[in-house]
Amino acid sequence: MFERFTKDARAVVTGAIEHCERAGEERVDEPHLLLALLDREGSRAAFALASLGLTGRRDAVVRDLAEARRRGGLSRAETDALAGLGIDVEEIVSRVEEAHGEGVLATGRQGGVRRSGRCPFTRGAKDLLTASLRTALAHGDRHIGDEHLLLALTGRSGVPAEVLADHGVTHASVERVLWGGGETKAG
User: Fold this and answer.
1) What is the pTM of this model?
2) Record's Gene3D superfamilies (predicted)?
3) Pairwise CA distance, residues 4 & 12, whole Å
4) Number of domains observed in the structure of the chain
């Protein structure tokens, strides 16, 4: 499938691996792909993110992703569902951090040594890459661009889509900017 990726999409995948390695984490996940998308300039995904006002808010997105990672990767929707059952996730996180240290629940840090030189992808990250292929095909595209990765990311449930939605970037808004009804479109 990687042979179908455009130069920009390949740069996102490579950037996600670099984000994972810099963070000292074992596996590339969806937030790493989001961070790599935010790094892009001059691409269709970068155009969409800028058009939707995300430029200049990268630090806020990074902070929101870090907060979710601190909660063990739970989205706000999952945290709210647990609260409905009487489970206070913040209280649990605080107690665990008191006993074992700050950030201990952060996903992706398992200690130990990787067998190969590169971080493997989580099931969720692999599923996102597959979804980007389906997204490209649904738009009549033979190649997967970074815009298809962004659409696939916003079309899934989970922390990255939730964080983007909090900043006004939804699947529908990205579709509208890139392909929608007579408005400015990326070329």
Assistant:
1) 0.82
2) Clp, N-terminal domain
3) 14
4) 1
